Amino acid sequence: MELGLSKKTIRHFITVMDTVKYCEETMETIVPDSLPDAVRVLETQGVVMIRDKELSDGRATVSGVVELTAVYTPEGEGTAKRITQTIPFKASCDGGEVDTECELVAQAQLVNGEMRLLNPRKMLGRVNVAVAFAVYAPRETEITESVESARDVETLMTTVKLTPVISVSERTVSLSDDLELGGGKGAAEEILASRVSIVPGECKF
Length: 205
Hints:
Radius of gyration: 27 Å
Largest sheet: 3 strands, antiparallel
Strand content: over 45%
Oligomer: single chain
Shape: elongated
Helix content: under 10%
């Protein structure tokens, strides 16, 4: 008796790269003529932005910029000033199973950022960026669902739970909000620095 197997093909993704690379960049910046000489750097903050992701045969590449802002004490008795410089970065990671058919999910985090005075009109910015690479490759897996023409044949079946990755996608979301200043603080003339933290909330289909 010939028996046939009823099969089903599942399209899914497998992880072919999951790693973190670190890159350090430095850049000098000149204090604009519109700003006074710098005496001391009070605080440095940075924001990382990914601008481009690229996949080639055997390599994943992520590039972007760090917007580094320094708040400094000016010469004389003026109020604190700020200066911002944009420092580009680029990180690559090699993997034998990576190709242009894969999907790349990347995250970048500022590990350390600083700006220090070289002289009253020049600063040196230094950033260390951690770039997380997650590359998913499409695959097709064939599984057996049942036995065809199984009359007078006993079959033993068991249920197996599969949790494959069936979709990889990203979405850009723009957010904005207003912050009211408390009473008695006076009017703000300039925003010198700001911090934003992303806290994951509920995620559902």
